[in-house]
Amino acid sequence: MFDIPLLLVAAFVAGALNSVAGGGSFLTLPALVFTGVPSVVANATGTVALLPGYVAGAWGFREDTQAPPGLSMRRLVVLSLLGGAAGAGLLLITPDTLFRRVVPWLLLLATALFAFGPRLRGLATGHAASPLKAAAGVLGVAAYGGYFNGGLGILLLALFGLLGQTSLNAMNGLKNVVSALLTAIAVIIYAAGGVVQWPQALMMMVAATAGGYIGARAARRIPAPWMRAGIVATGLIMTAIFFYYP
């Protein structure tokens, strides 16, 4: 009787977090696992639930979005789809028992990426890369996102900084475009592989969309350092729980 409220609250808060800073996967994946959903299915279902937020974010930054140095938008789209498909395919062939052992480490990595994200972006900004390295970077990060969504936004922002992107709005726009593309193709593959629990996914999708809108409006009143600290704390707590209960 508590499963539905837990999933709705987790999706709502996750949508709010993703709209302002990221880290929504820290809540959707554990909530689904705690309600008895197998880890691989929970990862896929949570990714489906958060897809509308990426699409809305991409649309919101549509005037600012531009391709990074060394890549055209067409090539960026192709690489995002290929990488997302590869990561999703890898998830489908990963046994649930193995994925449960990997999840704590992925959560820890995602938490570290989020915690040190500003420093990573600072180190990365302004250093243009060759077209080949740019393509390899996008393909690799997209594959990570298709396999495990946590920390994806931080990786993408750092990558675009490495490619020489300097406009934060353009970087955020690209982040949402790539996230939406790789997540969309991953969702198709998850659905074809039968690893999505659609009742939970659709219910959480509505809650996450509402949370994204309300979170974006409320974020203006919450100091950014407090928001980041709360997300990092959540990530660490969830990581500790998954290490303790593998």
UniProtKB/TrEMBL annotation:
Subcellular location: Cell membrane
Cellular compartments per GO CC: plasma membrane
Membrane topology of this protein: Multi-pass membrane protein
InterPro entries for the chain: TM_pro_TauE-like (IPR002781), TSUP (IPR052017)
Keyword terms of this UniProt record: Cell membrane, Membrane, Transmembrane, Transmembrane helix, Transport
Protein name stated in the entry: Probable membrane transporter protein
Family: Belongs to the 4-toluene sulfonate uptake permease (TSUP) (TC 2.A.102) family.
Biological classification of the source: Bacteria, Pseudomonadati, Pseudomonadota, Betaproteobacteria, Burkholderiales
Transmembrane domains' residue ranges: 32-55, 76-93, 99-116, 152-170, 177-195, 201-219, 226-245
